[in-house]
Amino acid sequence: MINLRFYFDEYKRQLAEIRTFIQSVELQKDVISEIEFYENKEKKRLNLLLQYSAIIKQVVETPIQYNAAIISIYGCFEQYIDNVFNEYCLAIYGIVDKYDNLPEKMKEKHIKKLGEFLSNPQRYKNYDLTDKQAVKNAVEAFNNPKEGFGNNQKLILSHGGNLKIEQILELANDLGIKNFEKSIVSNYLFKSYFLKRELFNEETYNRLISNGSKRLFEMLDRLVQERNNVAHGWVETRIKLSDIASEYIDYMESLAESILEGLIKSFYIIKYENDKMCLIGKPLKVIDHHIICINNREIVLHKEDYLLAVKGNIIKVITIKSIQKDGVDIEHIKEKNVDIGVGFEKRVDLNVDEKYEFYCEK
After folding, report:
1. pLDDT tens across 78-102, in order?
2. In terms of Cα–Cα distance, which of 143, 161, 142, 154 is closest to 114?
3. In this structure, are residues 268 and 308 in contact, taking their beta carbons and an 8 Å threshold?
4. Which of 52, 103, 116, 129 places its Cα 20 to 30 Å from the Cα of 352?
5. Distance (Å, rounded) from C-alpha 272 to C-alpha 96?
6. Of the candidates 311, 273, 226, the residue with the CA atom closest to the CA atom of residue 103
């Protein structure tokens, strides 16, 4: 699942570049004013600078740079969604070796999209897939899900063109991912975006989750609508570029990471349900809810490995951030039956106690 985090890091880098672009646009206005000030003050003809200033001033006053920012933010988000859901599916095929064990919703979508493809292949002409290949892949899926579903992946991952939250949740539901909306809105990172900016207090936020969380996705929906507007016309009423840089980009980053963590959790739950996780055991001691003292038995552990913490119906996916042996920080533990300290990110939604059982990948 390391590739899921890779795609998020790539998306985060793209957002940082867009933010820098927006900052440069804002700076251009100040540069123009400064050039005009010195030209008037010193009575000198700064010909090239003035020519450049005049052109940039015209560009700044048009929607071109705004359009570029909106299309770029939406474009890299859509690419991110396609990448992480594609990687998620490939990971599922890698651990589920029997067709019957695949999520029912995923199998249903495969059959549905296969039928649509065969009845109207022109609609899917950019999929680089023939009707014979699609049918052959579907048959192969019964014996080899990884091969058959993998080759029909584009059909399984097809979604609506405008990735508002409804389309993302529908895609997740079609892949058999349960309670995906709740997973996003309950995520510490997503929730923190609103609380830190005092957009909602804790009580109001929790009430929104209980009564319908659509308001929490208004910024995504507004961005999608703006993308449609700039793609089909010359937009005059715009979101302030400064708001995009300071609010929308941070929002999209927190949303993207919450989606990432939801997919990772769903993946490890499926691994757990298919007996693909190895029991380490219960901790000997828990310190401050995020450090466990545990015997590693015969299991090799590394920093940044994922662990599954299970207590009854509660399941949490936790990333190892530190490992200590005899009070000394180490990168990994290969020795057998050693009592070690394992530290995780300190987040209230990831708190654990001595009643949790911990699992790692086999």
Report:
1. 999 999 999 999 999 988 888 888 8
2. 154
3. yes
4. 103
5. 11
6. 273
Neighbour count for residue 250 (Cβ, 10 Å): 16
Q: Which tokens go with 41?
A: 């003050």
CB-facing half-sphere around the CA of 128: CA atoms within 13 A: 3
Q: How far, in Å, CA of 230 to CA of 125, rounded? A: 27
Tokens 């890299």 -> residue? 76
SS (H, E, C) 247-267: HHHHHHHHHHHHHHHHHHHHH
Task: Report the distance separating Cα 238 and Cα 253, nearest Å.
Answer: 21
DSSP element (H, E) containing 315: strand 314-325
User: pLDDT tens digit string along 39-82?
Assistant: 666 555 556 566 666 667 666 666 788 888 999 999 999 999 99
Contact (CB, 8 A) for 333 and 287: no
- Provide the token pair at 281: 């055991």
